[in-house]
Design brief:
Blueprint (H helix, E strand, L loop, with lengths): L1 E3 L5 H17 L17 E5 L3 E5 L2 E5 L14 H11 L7 E7 L5 E4 L11 E7 L1 E6 L9 E5 L4 E4 L8 E7 L11 E7 L3
Antiparallel strand pairs: 1-10, 2-5, 3-4, 5-12, 6-11, 7-10, 7-12, 8-9, 8-11
The structure holds 2-oxoglutaric acid (AKG) and fe (ii) ion.
Length: 194
């Protein structure tokens, strides 16, 4: 796993925030549900790009349309594709970008990202807004874990052996950024789903 502290400067963060705001106008945040427990995620989600990750009572999957509006996901901003090409050098572009919105109480339990068909491709994860305490483990559940502070503009690349590392978000650190209105944290993950 590679961590790029402040990979996006203030101007780039603001430009990306504005593009995401526009995307969320077309593809509003939806409320994902955990298939087994039928409980709501505390995070709300949307997507851009050809495919989007969704979760409801029938399971986790990638699909080309928004679960509430039935509309195709908006295109992925060129600046995200440029960042992917720059940081990964991977020969194919991402076909999905999951947008997670965390309010000050949201978190994400430890999990692996394994719903994709292409594990050779890395995952690029971008943080915007409030900082969080991120947690990383190994490739097996239950091993030792490490906490990591992620600030607005930081970018993580999960590739190679780190592609299937367990990870999650312990907590949001409210009031640590003024980038977003409403406040909170946005995380973008660029993936190759197929
Ligand atoms: O919010 C984050 O930093 C992680 C998000 C994540 O792991 C995911 O969407 O799969
Ligand atoms: Fe993940």
């Amino acid at each position: 796993m590679r961590l790029y502290k402040s990979a996006l400067d203030q101007a780039a963060q603001e430009a990306l925030r504005d593009e995401i705001r526009e995307i969320l106008r077309i593809a509003p945040l939806f409320q994902p549900v955990m298939p087994r427990t039928r409980k709501n995620f505390s995070v709300r989600m949307s997507n851009c790009g050809p495919l989007g990750w969704v979760s409801d009572v029938s399971g986790y999957r990638y699909q080309p349309d928004h679960p509430d509006t039935g509309q195709p996901w908006p295109p992925m901003p060129e600046r995200l594709l440029a960042l992917w090409r720059d940081l990964t050098g991977y020969p194919r572009d991402p076909d999905a970008c999951l947008i997670n919105y965390y309010d000050c109480n949201a978190r994400m339990g430890a999990h692996q990202d394994v719903d994709e068909q292409d594990f050779d491709a890395p995952i690029v994860s971008i943080s915007l807004g409030d900082a969080c305490r991120f947690r990383i483990g190994g490739v097996a559940r239950g091993g030792s874990t490490q906490a990591l502070a992620l600030d607005s503009g930081d970018v993580l690349v999960f590739g190679g052996p780190a592609r299937k590392m367990f990870h999650g978000v312990d907590k949001i650190l409210p009031g640590t950024s003024t980038l977003l209105d409403p406040p909170g944290r946005i995380n973008l993950t660029l993936r190759r789903a197929r």
